[in-house]
């Protein structure tokens, strides 16, 4: 046990060093950064009341069964509805995206590539190819005790030529609340929007509007992707 906590501290110090080294301007936010770099060790290190309530309601409203989901299809964002589009995307990061945010986006890229339904390739792509830009932004809510916190933002933007769409998509994380937003579940959700998935009413879908910590695509999510890309 003693040995474990020593290793934990060592990893923590190393993580802090990396964060400071790559992002000297964020030193005042060090405490928050530490919280997010250790998220794998202590996932709920800095829970707000709002987030806690969401977590609790999320677990109590989980009534969906696998068989129900099997028949369901996660809805599709309007720019890609009824459209044919390429399954190949070129993705890149805005310069100011920090390493921890890049990592959760890369995890999300792997999640979607693993489906075999889309192919996300690093790079800028041409204007006639589908692309995704990963970005970060800051948005503070006025009253933290009574509002939902926006953890991310993402979606498709389609240039439609007859029935063919060229998708210039974006996926972003709200870095005002990094301990809640820099998560695989949030990145998978926002990338899902970018790829054309809309919100789902199923709590086990990655597209449920409130973060449930779900980063594994449900059968309904896969069905939604198939509808867009398996033509
Ligand atoms: Zn959403």
Which SSEs are present, and which pair or pack?
Layout: H1 2-22, H2 30-37, H3 49-60, H4 66-71, E1 84-85, E2 88-93, H5 99-113, E3 119-122, E4 130-137, E5 152-155, E6 158-161, E7 164-174, H6 178-181, H7 184-194, H8 219-229
Parallel strand pairs: 1-7, 2-3, 2-4, 4-7
Antiparallel strand pairs: 5-7, 6-7
Helix pairs in contact: 1-2, 5-7
The protein binds zinc ion.
Zinc ion binds near residues 189, 193, 199 and 209.
Describe the model:
By secondary structure, the chain is of the alpha/beta class. The chain folds into 2 domains: 2-42; 66-229, 3-Layer(aba) Sandwich (Collagenase (Catalytic Domain)), CATH 3.40.390.10. The protein contains 8 helices and 7 strands, in the order H-H-H-H-E-E-H-E-E-E-E-E-H-H-H. The chain has helices at residues 2-22, 30-37, 49-60, 66-71, 99-113, 178-181, 184-194, 219-229, and strands at residues 84-85, 88-93, 119-122, 130-137, 152-155, 158-161, 164-174. Strands 1, 2, 3, 4, 5, 6 and 7 form a 7-stranded mixed sheet that branches. Strand 6 (158-161) and strand 7 (164-174) form a beta hairpin. Bound molecules: zinc ion (ZN). InterPro entries: MetalloPept_cat_dom_sf (IPR024079), Pept_M10_metallopeptidase (IPR001818), Peptidase_Metallo (IPR006026).
